[in-house]
Amino acid sequence: MLKATALTYRNAYSGLSRSTWLLSLVMLINRSGTMVVPFMTLYLTSPEMGYSIGKAGYVLGLFGLGAFTGAWCGGKLTDRIGHYPVQLITLIGGGILFIILGQLRTFPLICVFTFLVSFVGEAFRPANSTAIAFYSKPENRTRSYALNRLAINVGWALGSALGGVLAKINYELLFWVDGFTNISAAVLLWLALKPSVQTADSSKKEEVRPLIAAYRDKTYILFILITMLFAACFFQIFTNLPVFFREELHLSEPGIGFLMAFNGIIIALVEMVLVYKLEGKRNIMYYIAAGVSLVSIAFWLLNIPGPPMLIAFLMILVITFGEILSMPFMNAYWISRTHPTNRGQYAALYTMAWAAAQTLGPMSGAQLAGYAGFNTLWWVVGGLAAAAAGGFYLIRHRS
């Protein structure tokens, strides 16, 4: 039994190109330094900075705007000059901007550089997504994206944990570490992944779709709109859900931290193996719709009476498997609709959908929870996620 399990895990990670592993390592290093964003509100409202929660909200709003516009520009640049230079430029530029931002004290300059940091940082994402498609094969593309997601989740967990320690010492350290991890990721990319490798485009070995602008692909635009709806629901897990756990279920901060870590642990242990077992077996949209349906059920579980920790644990378990089923195959879907020369456009729209949802979803959810209570919020969010699942199912037939 143990031997069979070990063989399954080995097979799940085998067959991926060296370049795919390097790109995931670059993402791991980059995300391990992601510690400014989770602590930005605490930093701005700290006695040292002295800004109000309202002003901190403006700064976070500009961060969301920068992410949205940066994704669009990053996609355009990727199609024009290639994914390799865009990744190098954005990693180095983002690192420098983070260090500068940590030295600023006046509110207007903080606003300007927060926008720039987010703009440059999010421009990296379409280029990185396009690079993964470039260096992977059609038969292991979903696993290649799953490996990248694993790097993001592990990096985020490490960055958040280290960020909490550094913030207690000095908030300015967060900006220095975030800056140097960006630059370190750029150095690794430059040393280990040469641009000359791109002369052999793997996409030539697969069926290539006719060239069409992403903005004119009506089915894809529908997919993006539904993805934005789903993402707005999903982002409640990192914003309004912890508040609910503390205020309504009366869980402690360590308990909430354990639940959030549990999400990452399951992803690390299960996602690659599950994707390996499912990839190529059924229509991609079947898995996406099933995963989003699980997310819907997870939010509705929060309104069931019972022992608080059990309800919270069950909810995190269900939503994590919903995430594992849906998100790797979402990446596989948008790649399946691309031509080698327009992948930046498709990647940009996909990244923009998540960036917009990250801003609008938590903000709208907080307003609804404040006005009508958390129970109403979870019924509504679950209902919207169920509608998104239905939308993905309809796309399955349309595709």
UniProtKB/TrEMBL annotation:
<feature type="transmembrane region" description="Helical">
    <location>
        <begin position="173"/>
        <end position="193"/>
    </location>
</feature>
<feature type="transmembrane region" description="Helical">
    <location>
        <begin position="107"/>
        <end position="125"/>
    </location>
</feature>
<keyword id="KW-0472">Membrane</keyword>
<feature type="domain" description="Major facilitator superfamily (MFS) profile">
    <location>
        <begin position="19"/>
        <end position="399"/>
    </location>
</feature>
<feature type="transmembrane region" description="Helical">
    <location>
        <begin position="56"/>
        <end position="74"/>
    </location>
</feature>
<keyword id="KW-0812">Transmembrane</keyword>
<protein>
    <submittedName>
        <fullName>MFS transporter</fullName>
    </submittedName>
</protein>
<feature type="transmembrane region" description="Helical">
    <location>
        <begin position="376"/>
        <end position="395"/>
    </location>
</feature>
<keyword id="KW-1133">Transmembrane helix</keyword>
<feature type="transmembrane region" description="Helical">
    <location>
        <begin position="219"/>
        <end position="238"/>
    </location>
</feature>
<dbReference type="InterPro" id="IPR036259">
    <property type="entry name" value="MFS_trans_sf"/>
</dbReference>
<dbReference type="InterPro" id="IPR020846">
    <property type="entry name" value="MFS_dom"/>
</dbReference>
<feature type="transmembrane region" description="Helical">
    <location>
        <begin position="347"/>
        <end position="370"/>
    </location>
</feature>
<feature type="transmembrane region" description="Helical">
    <location>
        <begin position="81"/>
        <end position="101"/>
    </location>
</feature>
<feature type="transmembrane region" description="Helical">
    <location>
        <begin position="284"/>
        <end position="304"/>
    </location>
</feature>
<feature type="transmembrane region" description="Helical">
    <location>
        <begin position="310"/>
        <end position="335"/>
    </location>
</feature>
<feature type="transmembrane region" description="Helical">
    <location>
        <begin position="21"/>
        <end position="44"/>
    </location>
</feature>
<keyword id="KW-1003">Cell membrane</keyword>
<dbReference type="InterPro" id="IPR050171">
    <property type="entry name" value="MFS_Transporters"/>
</dbReference>
<keyword id="KW-0813">Transport</keyword>
<feature type="transmembrane region" description="Helical">
    <location>
        <begin position="146"/>
        <end position="167"/>
    </location>
</feature>
<dbReference type="InterPro" id="IPR011701">
    <property type="entry name" value="MFS"/>
</dbReference>
<dbReference type="Pfam" id="PF07690">
    <property type="entry name" value="MFS_1"/>
</dbReference>
<feature type="transmembrane region" description="Helical">
    <location>
        <begin position="258"/>
        <end position="277"/>
    </location>
</feature>
